[in-house]
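Table S2 (text version). Query chain:
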Amino acid sequence: MHIELTEMLRCPERHAEAFLVMSTGEMTGRMVRSGVLGCPVCAREYPIVKGVVYFTGSPVAPPRAAPRPATSVDPDTLQALLDLSGPGGYVVLLGSAARHAVGLAGLMDGIHFVGVNAPGDVEELPVLSLLRCEAVIPLRQAMARAVVVGRDRLDARWLAEAQRVLLPGRRLVVEDDRAAVPEGITRLALGQGLLVGERR
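Corresponding structure-token output:
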């Protein structure tokens, strides 16, 4: 996990957002490979193991699967749909959408990607931090420049979480054109297996 992402994280427990406190172990450059995150509100602690932050349950990675594309959408098309220009900030990739990180990073220099509940074959990279949490997206409200929701996280709870972490006026791409548009999102485009919206 990139150390600067710490200020964007939130405890998944139901209480007011507060900055988490990190105790680092091993680091490689700016990436934290091991350590603990603590919540000053509820005193819960969350381990960082092999660069992945585990917010719920024990630090067990999902089963590894053979690499495969998340959808047929290519990185150039996805970049255009996200409508991002200039470096800086975070793009959240939820579930299987984390597989887009490498392709997008090659086109969007200076943006950090956050994979939440990524498949087991997706590994941490200098441009990609990995978080695991089955309750919520463990990020602060309105912090993401864009969010891509994978086909494995299409239920209303995850779509609402995607809307929550998205900055106003920014794009949400859902990898299923049959998905319900979350409250607070204006639909911009629909088709070819994708739903594109913008947070109001």
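Notes on Table S2: The two ends are 30 Å apart (CA to CA). The chain has a mean pLDDT of 93.
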